[in-house]
Amino acid sequence: MVCPLPCASLCMLSSFNIEQRRSSHISSKPISESPKTELFRKFNSPFELKQVHTLVIKTGMPISDLPLSRVASVCARTPSFPYAQQIFQQVDQPETFIWNSCLRDFAESDSPFDAILLFYQIRRYNVLPDSFTCSFVLKACVRLQYLFHGRIIHAFVEKLGLQLNLVLLNVIVHLYASCGRINDAILLFDKMPQRDVVTWNTMITQLVKMGDIDSAYKMFVQMPDRNLRSWTAMIAGFVQCGKPKEGIALFTKMEEVGLKPNEVTVVAVLAACADVGALDLGRRIHDYSDKRGFTRNIHISNTLIDMYIKCGCLKASCDVFKNMKERTIVSWSAMIQGLAIHGKAKEALELFSEMIYTGMKPNGVTFLGLLNACSHMGLINEGRSFFASMTKDYGIIPCIEHYGCMVDLLSRAGLLEEAHELIEQMPIKPNAAVWGALLGGCKVHKNIEMAEIAMRHLHELDPLNDGYYVVLSNIYSEAKKWEDAAKVRKMMRNRGLKRQLVGVQLLLAGREKLALVFGLINTPPGETIRIFKNLRVCEDCHASFKLISSIVKREIVVRDRNRFHCFKDGYCSCKDYW
DNA sequence: CTAGGGTTAG
């Protein structure tokens, strides 16, 4: 992160002459419409500003009609500050007020750095700053994660005697915490003479961002008053920290207290439902959202799509998607990924074409969905061509997850050498997921040599994960290499990994079937049965489910770690490729 | 009403 000294930022203002010369011929360029109107809106240099100013004076237009932020932004970057000051002093508003509005615009713009520049100019030319001035420039510091400037402004706040202003202190707490200085934030929090619900909410959110959900919850319990935002922040916090069950439990408590969820709460709760597969609650929230008109909110529809997908209701997610009047890349990517994990590769690819046709630009996540689709259905050539196209046609640099998908795609298809080559030549250091994908392929295609290569890396990258040892041991066992299998088990024991290799699989297999029987007894005939598990479905269960689905004439949807299996009339949506 | 806190796809 660039964090120039304040004096350095002032030095940057010396580009005045270059800018003036570069832009002086803009006005002589042929412009459609009225060139003067164009100039009035878009002037970019002090030179053009003077032209506009002249225009204002000539036409007798009130000076307050000038786009003041434009004036300020031109002058923030050049030594023409006094010129803008002159103009502002003729406007029928306090000068500080106008500079503050400009600061606010800059702080919220795409280049918040302008606010920092302008702030130092304001200081230099002795405009009297107030608490609003500080709050806007602090906001820019937060957005830019400029701790250095933030500390300067903090000191400045004290110098101005504003150290008791609660709003400012809240922003400063936010600044320190969001810049990773949680201890500074806590220090300030502890010595604040008073705190309000915003102070507490800020701490909770930032603690969650640091991954410290326990401290966040302690504060949530400890705080004197909680508003809807406090509850929402805490629910979202649980979801973000991978504790969706706790999130749902807290939501239930919130309802008991009598608070009604708003749009943001709904997004967080739906995300929790998606993670644990709480379809009933998800449907209830969907109803509620419809009643309150929340479904027009794109965030909510996007999250609904995701929730239905992860709960195994592809149809319901399609309905939400179709009913959306506007869609973002998140909507499309979620839907493509949804089709992919439900084994509808063809539909996923078609949806992608449709998306491109509407002019929506894909991003990295979109391609993850596409590669997933290809991977689950063994579409090797399509996968290769998407992987090439993402960079070539859309300028998206593949990240580790994309490589993981490609390795998965090639390995599943038995192209273990090609997968290994891809890993060897990828520009990022491969992680455990990448080598794990290769190992998975080695199991399916019974390649012991390659499995050993993958294992050497996994051993190093993720030594405490017993799952890989289990896979390797199984590969040896299947090849009847009992001694090697025993060696792996010994290795696990030496590392203190105690999982019972054979017992685990049997137990899980039993559980899946038990879940199915339970579902058959407890649901009306004909209704879809949904089973969730946190590992991969084993081959034995997969075969049984196909059979049972045709006998009882019911759909059985199983969510495993990676995807969905929809069993119907003796067939599975994965077409046995998984 | 010139300022501060909570949200989605992998």
TrEMBL record:
In this chain the DYW domain maps to 505-578
Species annotation: Rehmannia glutinosa
Q: What is the lineage of its organism?
A: Eukaryota, Viridiplantae, Streptophyta, Embryophyta, Tracheophyta
Q: Which UniProt keywords apply?
A: Repeat
What is a single Pfam family found in this protein's UniProt entry? PPR
Family according to the record: Belongs to the PPR family. PCMP-H subfamily.
- InterPro entries assigned to the protein according to its UniProt record, in alphabetical order: DYW_dom (IPR032867), E_motif (IPR046848), PPR_At4g14850-like_plant (IPR046960), PPR_rpt (IPR002885), TPR-like_helical_dom_sf (IPR011990)
PPR repeat segments: 165-195, 196-226, 227-261, 328-362
Q: What is this protein called?
A: DYW domain-containing protein
